[in-house]
Specification:
The complex is a heterodimer.
Chain A: E1 2-5, H1 10-13, E2 26-30, E3 32-33, H2 42-47, E4 58-65, E5 69-77, E6 94-100, E7 118-124, E8 130-136, E9 143-157, E10 160-168, E11 187-194, E12 206-207, E13 212-216
Parallel strand pairs in A: 1-4, 1-13
Antiparallel strand pairs in A: 2-4, 3-12, 4-5, 5-10, 6-7, 6-11, 7-8, 8-9, 9-10, 11-12, 11-13
Chain B: H1 6-28, E1 34-39, H2 48-57, E2 70-74, E3 90-91, E4 94-95, H3 103-106, H4 114-119, E5 155-159, H5 168-172, E6 178-180, E7 187-189, H6 199-203, E8 210-212, E9 217-219, H7 225-228, H8 235-239, E10 245-249, H9 256-263, E11 268-269, E12 280-283, E13 289-291, E14 297-302, H10 306-313, H11 317-332, H12 338-344
Parallel strand pairs in B: 1-12
Antiparallel strand pairs in B: 1-10, 2-5, 3-4, 6-7, 8-9, 11-12, 13-14
The chains are: A mainly beta, B alpha+beta.
Chain lengths: ~220, ~375
């Protein structure tokens, strides 16, 4: 997967509808439901049907950087726009990017491990234009981190979501909860999407099986 | 990393499940268990317990519709409405899928026109009323009950979180955000770990967990643990004017809880078939006999049908009622009954086991 070098400011590309995105190659990904057998809750295993979860099966990912910022644009079809949690049984749409926190080969469908934690950039439709930086070292262990804030912008239209994550490429040396990114250094990436109208949240979602190698164009 | 074979995947899934199971076992264990007994022969549905809890714990933003303690007329839909049909719990130790109650099912927090009536000078022309046209509330079917005149019947059922020994909520949470306190078995949601996924709300068969829409976390009865830690009984129990709420450790053989539940077996769990081993027990309500078609008293049939009580409390309700009736006959004949003396509660403090400290005498703490 290519993270194209561009000479555009972050603010411009943060707009999911910016015309410049059409020049950036996109990688269509096939998504699958998360394996029910791995869910860290016997209740979830017993109450869900693997065929009924992970409703979103296709995601288009575009990545770009300008030397100091990296941006990902995710688009997927979703005729049901779910934004606000208007009731107890209502869940918002969401998406996320997963990367190994400290390199290595963390197990994707286990959300990392103690030895190989992962860094997740998480956006939910009711977060307005922010995303959450989270760290995990295994199933059910995600914790929101205030380190290295991530910007987000999302637009829903014509039965589809288009949203952009943006973050500085480099993070302070002392950061322990945000993946260090640099031009020329490939990084493993994976993606997840939650369909709110299908009651998806936590580990009940669609995800890209297997890491993709993201090459940050020099 | 090459994709694992099906066999490797299955093995890994088993390893993860075993690790999760052992974690859950640790979260569930407790050395002692606090419990309550509610004597349904004494509840008059005054809702004082409900308001005591509300004014103490659920006044913050997002908590407006929460009623951690409820009292409903039975038969009736309860709170949330038709909760008994919403699934959850366990059957043969397997978790059962449950439904999420909506805010309307719980009874939405109504907005009243206080400003208009009290401060807007309209006190003589406008009724105090909720806005919109509510069609359900947490006590909507109060006193409707069941049966047909002259054999209509109802009683009141106070409910709180049961702080179960095998909590379905604790099992369900994929983040292990729910745990049982080791020292007293109180089940708590860790508000720092909770992300508002609401699987616990699906799984609880008693539907006693609420979702705070502002904080986006689950919340429920905490057994007044900050009071317990200072020797003060929970607010619902202490405020009850009916003297029907006993509080104590299940293993305290000299206390009323142990005697009512284990020794005399007159206090029973609600819907034991849900499989969660609740720690709130009920003394079933005795009722007068029914009238037959000719208008004569039929001693063989109580007004509250035994089948209905069996539906609520299981088959053990029959011997429990028999014991109570036998004790009442004993005292009527001039004898003494330790069971009835315990249930009558001549001494108010005897309800609370070791938790007899007056809350007015302790320093307030922030939780």
């Amino acid at each position: 997967m290519l993270c194209k070098k561009v000479t555009l400011p972050r603010e411009r590309l943060l707009d999911p509808l910016a015309a410049e995105w059409s020049a950036i190659p996109g990688e269509p990904l096939k998504l699958d439901a998360t394996p029910l057998a791995n869910q860290p809750s016997e209740y979830i295993k017993a109450s869900r049907d693997e065929k009924q979860i992970g409703k979103v099966r296709h995601l288009l990912v575009q990545a770009a950087h300008n030397g100091s910022d990296i941006l990902f644009r995710l688009t997927w079809e979703d005729t049901n726009k779910n934004v606000e949690v208007t009731d107890t049984n209502v869940f918002p749409d969401a998406c996320g990017i997963l990367m190994p926190l400290n390199g290595g080969d963390p197990p994707i469908d286990e959300m990392g491990s103690k030895d190989a934690p992962v860094n997740a950039w998480f956006w939910r439709a009711d977060f307005n234009d922010t995303a959450r930086n989270t760290v995990a070292h295994g199933l059910g262990t995600t914790q929101f981190s205030k380190e290295c804030p991530i910007q987000a912008k999302a637009v829903w239209g014509n039965g589809a979501w288009a949203m952009v994550f943006a973050r500085a490429l480099a993070v302070p040396q002392q950061a322990t909860e945000a993946v260090q990114l640099a031009v020329g250094q490939p990084v493993k990436v994976a993606f997840a999407v939650w369909e709110g109208s299908n009651g998806e949240r936590a580990g009940v979602k669609s995800f890209s099986k297997g890491w993709r190698e993201l090459a940050l164009e020099a | 990393m090459a994709e694992l074979s099906e066999q490797q995947k299955a093995q890994r899934a088993n390893e993860l499940a075993a690790a999760a199971k052992s974690q859950k076992a640790q979260l569930k264990q407790s050395k002692r268990q606090l419990a309550m007994v509610f004597d349904l022969n004494k509840c008059l549905g005054c809702q004082t317990c409900v308001v005591a809890c509300k004014t103490l714990w659920t006044r913050d933003e997002g908590m407006e519709y929460m009623w951690w303690a409820t009292v409903n007329t039975q038969p009736g839909k309860g709170t949330p409405r038709e909760w008994e049909m919403m699934g959850g719990g366990f059957r043969d130790e397997e978790p059962q899928a449950g439904k999420l109650p909506t805010r309307r099912d719980f009874g939405e927090a109504w907005d009243f026109n206080y400003d208009e009536v009290f401060f807007g000078g309209k006190g003589n022309s406008v009724h105090l009323q909720p806005s919109g046209e509510p069609d359900w509330g947490p006590n909507w079917d109060e006193d409707q009950g069941g049966g047909q005149y002259p054999n209509s019947f109802y009683f009141y059922l106070p409910r709180i979180c049961n702080h179960c020994t095998n909590p379905a909520c604790l099992e369900a949470c994929p983040r292990n955000a729910i745990y049982k306190r080791e020292e007293d078995g109180i089940v708590l949601i860790n508000e720092e770990r909770c992300k508002g996924y609401r699987f616990c709300m699906e799984a609880c068969p008693y539907k006693k967990i609420y979702f705070n829409h502002v904080r986006q976390i689950g919340q429920k009865c905490i057994f007044c643990y900050p009071r317990i830690e200072q020797g003060v009984a929970p607010a619902c129990a202490r405020q009850c004017p009916g003297r029907l709420r006993f509080v104590g450790f299940l293993d305290d053989e000299r206390g009323p809880i142990h005697k009512l539940v284990k020794t005399w077996k007159v206090a029973l769990p609600l819907h034991p078939e849900f499989g969660t081993q609740p720690n709130v027990y009920y003394v079933p309500p005795i009722s007068p006999p029914r009238f037959d078609a000719e208008g004569n008293i039929d001693e063989s049939k109580p007004r509250i049908p035994t089948d209905y009580l069996k539906y609520l409390f299981g088959p053990e309700v029959e011997p429990a009622l028999a014991t109570l009736k036998a004790e009442m006959a004993k005292t009527k004949a001039g004898g003494k009954s330790e069971i009835l003396d315990t249930l009558i509660v001549y001494e108010w403090k005897s309800l609370f086991g070791p938790f007899t400290t007056d809350p007015a005498t302790i320093e307030p703490r922030t939780v």
